[in-house]
Amino acid sequence: MTYKMIVLDLDDTLLQDDHTISPRTKQALMDAQKLGVKVVLASGRPTSAMYDIAEELELKEYGSFILSFNGAKITNCQTGEELFSSTLTPETAHRLYEISRRENLWIHTYIGDYIVTEAGNQYTTIESDITGLEVFEVDSFVESVNEPVVKLLMMDDPEKLAEAEKKLQQELNDELSVMRSKPYFLEFTEKGVTKGTSLNHLIGQLGITREEVIAIGDSYNDLAMIEFAGLGVAMGNAPQDIKEKANYVTDTNMKDGVAKVVEEFILKTPSLV
What we know:
It is a single chain. The chain is α/β, with parallel strands linked by helices. It has helices at residues 10-14, 23-34, 51-56, 90-103, 122-131, 141-144, 158-172, 195-206, 223-228, 240-245, 257-265; strands at 5-8, 38-42, 65-68, 73-76, 82-85, 106-111, 114-117, 134-137, 152-155, 176-182, 185-190, 213-217, 231-234, 248-249. The chain has 2 domains: 5-85 and 193-265, Rossmann fold, CATH 3.40.50.1000; 90-190, Hypothetical Protein, Haloacid Dehalogenase-like Hydrolase, Chain: A, domain 2 (2-Layer Sandwich), CATH 3.30.1240. A hairpin with a 2-residue loop joins strand 10 (176-182) and strand 11 (185-190). The longest helix has 15 residues, at 158-172. It is globular. The protein starts with a strand and ends in an 8-residue tail after the last helix.
């Protein structure tokens, strides 16, 4: 199979633990792009928190794309045009806020280039560190969220959040997409919006088939695109249930797992240890 696109989650997949791309992985991706392969970044991060990585990989020059907010936005790196955008109404955001209070979970959303929350907490601080976005604490979440937002996050201890995920997926199944991006992040987007549906929308515009796509990820918000792609790849550091649903399991993010996939399936060169 000749693959025409490789879609990459960022944190714990493309990026090492220090949030950098290893030299070997960067070189493999640059070589793939020179062959005409589209390198697409797909993350739960806001769009603005992905630009630096897109710039490092020269996605603008190669005419590639960013799938941000778990697929709720698709951005053309070359033109800056939004090809797809999904949002939640203020009323939905307010309802989720009330649910977060009921479940005793932290909550935040994004307005402009700020993370907005009523009370600072360790999990929102983690999100700020990952994305580089400043946290803006407000007196009233409900009064501050008065226009559509792309997504919301509820956060807490992983064990507690896992129980909340089961409950809220059942409660909100007909209304929203509910999934964890990290053990301590539970994300809410418009119903039917996932990295997989966003990827399907993108390749439809480009005339690429799903069989010609490789998708690599490590977490539950990556599962939809892993299952959608012709070659769905789980990282070596992914949970076991994600690995079991992938077509292929590569090495970890700290051992050039992405580079090894590119070398084997796109560059057709023997993968080094």
